[in-house]
Fold:
Amino acid sequence: MSLLEVVEDIGRQVALPNAASVDVEARFPKEVFDALKEKGLLSAMVPTDLGGNGASVSEIAACISALSKYCASSAMIFAMHQIQVACLVRHGTTEYFQSVQRDLVKNQYLLASATTELGVGGDVRTSKCAVEIEGERFRLEKMAPVISYAENADAILVTARRGPDSPPSDQVIVLVEVADSELEPLSGWDTLGFRGTCSLGFKLKTSGRKDAILPEPYGDISSQTMLPISHIVWSSVWLGIATAAMLKAQKFVQAEARSKPGTTPPSAMRMAELFARYSQFADTVKAGTDRFEAMSSDRESLTSVGFALSMNAMKINSSNLVVEVVSDAMNLVGISGYREDSDFTMGRLLRDAHGASLMVNNDRIHLNNSQLLLVHRDF
Amino acid sequence: MDADIREILREHGRLAVDALSIGENDDLYQAGLTSHASVNVMLALEDKFDIEFPEAMLRKRTFESVESIRGAVQQLVG
Structure:
């Protein structure tokens, strides 16, 4: 079985039956992650010589979209984990990080991320907190407004200033073990959508071996890996939500058509329109993924203005298209899409879809692109 | 040219250190240059030297030190 088939199975058999309770109770989808871990999917991107599957970004993106059709919260957690794995795989060249990757394969660790910080206005390329090194150990304290699924994770990648004297933009990224950390919740997580991601804020107090600091500057890791892969895997989650909405709409149209064979139901035209919009979305995500894969080993080009602009644009377009597709699907289905107690309900899909433009707010991304466009030349 | 580049860095680079005395090979990103500030540095350089950075130069390495900026500007002023 391919990775995609395995994930599709887990989606149908485990994620789907639990999706409603994950959403209602805003709880971590433990059953889904137990199943993903059992099949070794948390280390899918680790290279084969370290024991993983060596999965490409496009393979992982397809798995994420598949899972998202059944439970977008599960898919978002899976996606966020893979972003962290990609950082370790692409930038963890030291002996320490090679052994971390082997351990990841063996123990199927779930990795979380703490990039934002209270008091920096949501700019992940700025840190207030700093790594403090003493001998072979480091100490770090961070006020993080969001660490998704922190209490269910085994380790967290945390950004911080390189040292107490470093300017706010001179950041490193540190792999901290949850077992070595104190996590004091700062907020709850009662939201419209993506409720199962349990994205609470925490005061994080931690320490560890200084080997656990990734050797490259965070700025490089961000532009070459974390940012583009985040946009790709998030967009893949949203695409899965749109796919789920489209499949429901299609079932509705098919049922109408079957009830009166020989006449094309009015909703069939809406379905054709919906499919055109959906295709635009799917192609947008595919083009962005292909663009990254074609350039992925040319680290220098990944820091270019043109590449950043295009990945930012993909995020903006995907996050808008998911709301359009799900809303249009609900209009097509009508009142049974609006009802929460029908098979055609679009409730959770619509609530999840609206998170897309807010997680890294589209306004912030437009602001970045508006800057970059002042110097960009080649269209 | 060096003095002009340093003056532009001082005005637009928002560095944590003095741009007029920073070592010519010192890493400007470690000195606090952000991508936002680097765009402003680019714009000021384009205005000062009446040049346009081609797309191939619009990447992180071009602006990583005083020396690399000088190299890029020299190439463009010809």
